[in-house]
């Protein structure tokens, strides 16, 4: 990618923004930046570049003395050491001082052959650091035995268990917390510090402020069991904030084991209404695990390049995940997977593999189609809208969910 242009003298002490896309297979991002004139005697045109990735994380700075800028596991000086995440990045030109018009050339080179894998995760767990019965190590081993690759430790309004996450014998553990407020429970995934729902004087914070605090540390925040029974059976459990739960990063559309039908059906229906109206809120499942339990539940299947916190958070944020109680399910919509965007010409081709006997609902913005399926299912699906979506829900003979997919987005084009 090459960007060339001019910064006018009148733009001194202003900021210019350019967005660019990093491909999904990138493992290295190299920047070459030059501008002229750079100086007139002792007076310099002073332009810096600051880079932010698709999660909004700061990735480094090209200063006047920067000769080499590389974001990669083996990064250059002035750049963050990490694989560049796919998606829309932003570079800010900070025009600190200009004595003349400036002509610039910015070249961005992305390289790599990263591939995606599927990881099974549990997003809602409790240990003895709150009201769970297992230690963090026991929780890790139990989930590994159940086939999970990773979990978020989301103890009630506590992060003391994080110190035990570094070396676990089973499933990989990531930091999280469940905020127990008087108006509902919220899950914070991937934070660096404790997020409180009240200030130092004990006053309740506005929930928008809580969201900003979570995002400031590159965490995701979502609502747990929004329609669960409230007082007096479960004080503070039902969501009663004015904040719309479907304006969060994600919402728990399935809580607990497969027996909790009615309240979870309300969550699924409300989530479908939200995404069909244009909200991009991600559906997740949470066992709300407190003790060893052999009952079946919905797991989160995440498509990520590696089992690292930021890779997993990226996949959750951009909907590269589906919920399943039957294991991995292969989903293909005209060559695209969950969370991706597929081109359509009025139709798309849907293929699903590994389904048991079930009732499959194929949902777009305006239609719901029902199919009885078993094994591999293939169907050409008519798309009515220029910009549309397709999401999948499958239920077994007892009307229990076996599959809930986040949307595949559809756009008309060649």
Automatic annotation (TrEMBL):
Gene Ontology terms, MF aspect: 5'-3' DNA exonuclease activity; 5'-3' RNA exonuclease activity
Source organism, top-level taxon: Bacteria
Coiled-coil stretches noted in the UniProt entry, renumbered to this chain: none
InterPro entries reported in the protein's UniProt record: PHP_domain, Pol/histidinol_Pase-like
Protein name (Swiss-Prot/TrEMBL): Polymerase/histidinol phosphatase N-terminal domain-containing protein
Species this chain originates from: Pseudothermotoga hypogea DSM 11164 = NBRC 106472
């Amino acid at each position: 990618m090459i960007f060339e242009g001019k910064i006018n003298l009148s733009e001194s002490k202003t900021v210019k923004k350019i967005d660019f896309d990093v491909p999904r297979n990138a493992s290295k991002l190299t920047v070459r930046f030059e501008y002229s004139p750079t100086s007139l005697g002792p007076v310099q045109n002073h332009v810096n570049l600051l880079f932010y990735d698709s999660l909004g994380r700061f990735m480094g700075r090209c200063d006047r003395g920067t000769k080499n800028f590389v974001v990669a596991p083996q990064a250059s000086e002035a750049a963050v050491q990490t694989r560049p995440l796919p998606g829309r990045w932003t570079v800010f030109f900070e025009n600190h001082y200009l004595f003349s018009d400036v002509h610039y050339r910015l070249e961005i080179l992305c390289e790599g052959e990263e591939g995606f894998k599927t990881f099974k995760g549990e997003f809602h767990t409790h240990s003895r650091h709150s009201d769970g019965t297992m230690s963090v190590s026991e929780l890790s081993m139990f989930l590994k035995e159940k086939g999970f690759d990773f979990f978020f430790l989301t103890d009630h309004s506590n992060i003391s268990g994080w110190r035990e996450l570094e070396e676990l014998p089973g499933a990989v553990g990531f930091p999280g917390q469940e905020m127990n407020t008087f108006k509902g429970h919220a899950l914070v995934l991937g934070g660096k510090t404790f997020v409180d729902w009240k200030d130092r004087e004990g006053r309740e914070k506005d929930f928008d402020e809580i969201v900003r605090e979570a995002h400031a540390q590159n965490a995701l925040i979502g609502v747990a069991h929004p329609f669960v029974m409230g007082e007096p059976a479960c004080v503070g459990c039902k969501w009663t904030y004015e904040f719309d739960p479907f304006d969060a990063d994600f919402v728990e559309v399935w809580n607990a084991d497969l027996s909790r039908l009615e309240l979870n059906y309300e969550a699924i229906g409300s989530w479908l209404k939200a995404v069909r109206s244009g909200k991009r809120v991600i559906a997740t499942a949470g066992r709300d695990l407190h003790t060893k339990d052999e009952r079946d539940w919905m797991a989160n299947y995440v498509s990520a390049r590696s089992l690292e916190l930021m890779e997993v958070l990226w996949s959750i944020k951009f909907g590269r995940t589906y919920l399943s109680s039957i294991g991995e399910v292969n989903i293909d919509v005209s060559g695209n997977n969950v969370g991706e965007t597929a081109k359509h010409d009025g139709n798309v081709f849907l293929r699903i593999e590994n389904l048991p006997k079930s009732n499959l609902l194929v949902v777009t913005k305006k239609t719901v189609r029902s199919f009885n399926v078993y094994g591999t299912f293939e169907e050409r699906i008519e798309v009515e809208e220029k910009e549309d979506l397709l999401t999948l829900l499958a239920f077994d003979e007892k009307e229990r969910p076996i599959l809930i997919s986040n949307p595949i987005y559809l756009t008309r084009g060649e």
